[in-house]
Every structure is written in C-alpha cells, then in structure tokens.
Amino acid sequence: MTAKHAVLLAAFLVVPVLASACGATGGDEGSGPSPLSITRVEGTNKDLVQLTTRASERLAIQTAKVRGDGDGSQRTLIPYAAVLYDPNGQTWTFTSPRNRAFLRADIVVDRVENGTAILAKGPPIGTPVVTVGATELWGAVYGGIKED
What we know:
By secondary structure, the chain is an alpha+beta fold. The chain has one domain (about 5-140): conserved putative lor/sdh protein from methanococcus maripaludis s2 fold (Beta Barrel). It contains three helices and eleven strands, in the order αββαβββββββββα. A five-stranded antiparallel beta sheet has the order 1-2-8-7-6. Strands 4-5-10-9 form a four-stranded antiparallel beta sheet, with no helix packed on it. Strands 3-11 form a two-stranded antiparallel ribbon. Helix 1 (about 5-20) crosses helix 3 (about 135-140). The longest helix is centred in the N-terminal third of the chain and has 19 residues, at about 5-20. The radius of gyration is 16 Å and the shape is elongated.
C-alpha cells in the first residue's frame, strides 16, 4: 500500500471516530449546536471552517509553520503529516489563518524526505498548517457531524 492510499484509507476510516469525538449521535440531525461553521471565501471556491472552542479541544488539532528550504530555490517545507490527498490524488493541506479557523490550500509536492514534504507550490513561509487532526477536520467538514 502506498503512502497516498494509506492516507486516503485513514481519512475514510476516521470519520466514525470523529463523530463520536465530536459528540455526534445517531439521533435527530437538528439536535445540539454545530461544532463548526463554514463560510465561502468571497471570490474563491474555498470554504473557511471555524470550529467552536469545544470542537477544537476535542479534535486536539496541532499546527506547524511552513518553512523555507534555505537553499534559495524558493521551495517550502511542511511536515508530511500536513499533506492530504483527495480521491483523485491531488495534494492539499489545511492552513490556519486565525485561531480555530481552517482553510484548504492546494499544494504541489516535489518530494518527501525524512517526514518532510518539499513543496513546489504551497502556502507562504510562516503560514500555520495542520499537522495533527487534519483528517478529523476533513471528516467534520464533509461528514455532517453535530456536537452534543
């Protein structure tokens, strides 16, 4: 199994776990407040996801800042844990423009070395990217989870 397939499999398997972590129940979809709000970013096809404090604590999301490669090639580095793959094999990551807010960003991975993704295209240096909890966040956005 390739790393890409493993990440995809993990993303699909984690949704039920996330549902219980966010307090979702099999009951009425309208019960309880939503653990997140989703707002379309004007002029784009991207959504800004804002978590409640409780949802953020339960997901235990962690971030790391995008780094420069230091050799002048203008490539940026992120932990490989921040790289996600869609069903078509496209790569992306969640950035965090502010506290408990997340935005999907398309990236192009040049190569992976020692747990670090070297990007040919990605967010600017200093941008926080999600390194822990990205698949859970993906599940919360696309899984219809409600908080109890």
